[in-house]
Amino acid sequence: MSKQLRPMLKVEKWLKRAFLPGMRTFRPSAVAIVITSPGGSAAQSELIHQRVRSLAQQTGTTVYTFAEDVAASGGYWLMCAGDEMYSTATSLVGSIGVITAGFGLHRVLEKYEIERRVFTAGKYKDQLDPFRQVKPGEVERVQELLSDLHESFQEVVRSTRGNKLDTSNEDDLWSGRIWTGRQAAKLGLIDSVGTVESVCKQKFGEKTVFVQCGEPPRAGLLDAFGARAPLSFGQMGWSQGSAYQAATGAAQGFLDEVEYRSMMARYGL
C-alpha cells in the first residue's frame, strides 16, 4: 500500500474501470479481484470494501475475490468484499485481529541526560509517547480502541460468511491466527481452493476472456542487468519496454522484494 497515496484513492480508478468499462457493447460477466496483502489501515480496508460492494450493487455484478501469497488482516477484510472467496492451497489467509506497536525509549533519554519538552492541549494528546513511561490507564484506553476495531472486523466477516463459518471454536477464528488456503476452506473463511483462471473458466467456460484492470507489471531489479525484457501494457497488448524503464524500475523492484520478504518473515516463513 502506497505511503504517498492513500490506498482508496489509488484503486478507485481501477475499480471504476472494472465495474464501469464505459463501453455500451461490453459489460463484464463478473469482476475478479486478486489480493496479495498482509494488511494495513483498518479504515482504508473498510473504505475499499464498501466501494467494491457499492459498485457491485450499482451494476449488478458478481464479485469473486482471490488470495495469492497472503490475504491477512486488512487483506482478508478486502477479500470479504467478494460474493465468493477463493485462495490457492498454500496461500496464507485470515489474521482476523488488530495490532498496534511502538517502542519505549525513555531510558535512552535518561542515559544521555536529554530533556524532552512536549506541550499539549488535551489530556490524552500525548498518549503512549515513546519517550516517556506509560501512564496509568493508557494501556486500557488503547485496548478499548483495538477491541472496537476488532469487533468491526468480526462484523464484516460474519455478515459476509454467515452460516458458512465453522463456529465450533469461534474464539480461534477471531484470535488473529492465519491459516493456509486448505485450512481456511475447512473453517468457512473462504468458499474453496482455486485460482482466478480455474474458477472463472469453470463458471464461464474455457473461452473466458480476462480484461486486466490494475497497475501493469513494473520492471524489476533483474531487468536493469538484462536478465529479462521489461514489459509494458499498451492499447495493442503486451510489448517490450525500453532500457530506461528497466533502469527506473530497478530500485522499485528491489523495494518490492524487500517488502515481500518482510511480509513472509512476519509469518515466520
Provide a brief overview of the structure.
The protein is α/β, with parallel strands linked by helices and 269 residues long. It contains 9 helices and 8 strands.
Write up this protein.
The protein folds into two domains: 169 residues, Alpha-Beta Complex (2-enoyl-CoA Hydratase, Chain A, domain 1); 54 residues, no CATH class. 41% of the residues lie in helices and 14% in strands. It is built from nine helices and eight strands. Strands 1, 2, 3, 4, 5 and 6 form a six-stranded mixed sheet that branches. The protein is elongated. The chain starts with 6 loop residues before the first helix and ends with a helix.
Largest sheet: 6 strands, mixed
The percentage of residues in β strands lies in: 5-15%
**CATH architecture classification name of the largest domain:** Alpha-Beta Complex
Q: Whole-number radius of gyration? A: 22 Å
**SSE succession:** HEHEHEEHHHEHEHEEH
- The helix content is 40-55%
What spatial form do the alpha-carbon principal axes imply?
elongated
Average per-residue pLDDT, rounded, comes to 82
Low-confidence parts, pLDDT < 50 over ≥5 residues? 221-248
Instruction: Tell me the number of structural domains.
Output: 2
> What would you give as the CATH superfamily of the largest domain?
2-enoyl-CoA Hydratase, Chain A, domain 1
Rounded to the nearest angstrom, the distance between the terminal CA atoms is 21 Å
Number of helices: 9
Q: What class, by secondary structure content?
A: alpha/beta
Q: Fill in the CATH topology of the largest domain.
A: 2-enoyl-CoA Hydratase, Chain A, domain 1
Pfam family, one: Peptidase_S49
Keywords: Hydrolase, Protease, Serine protease
InterPro entries: ClpP/crotonase-like_dom_sf, Peptidase_S49, S49_SppA_C
Domain Peptidase S49: 57-202
